[in-house]
Write the C-alpha cells for this entry.
Amino acid sequence: MAKKKSDFGVRLNSLMAMSDEDIDAAYEEQLMNQITGSEKGAGLGLFEIRRQVKTLSFEFEPDGEDFMLVMRADI
C-alpha cells in the first residue's frame, strides 16, 4: 500500500507542477487514451480540478491499513 501511496503522490506532485499549457495537452492525451483503452496516469477528473483551481494541495491521512487522500483546492 505504501508503494501505491508513493506512486500516486509523485503523479499528483507532477500534475501540480505542470503549466496551464501542459495541463491542456495532458488532458487531451488522457482523453484519447481513455477512448483507445490505454488509460494511465491521472484521470480526467484530476486534470479538470487542476485546470479550475488557483492552488491545489494534498496529503495522505492514515486510515487503518489504507490511506485517505485529502485534497484542498482554492478556487
Notes: The radius of gyration is 13 Å. The first helix runs from residue 2 to 17.
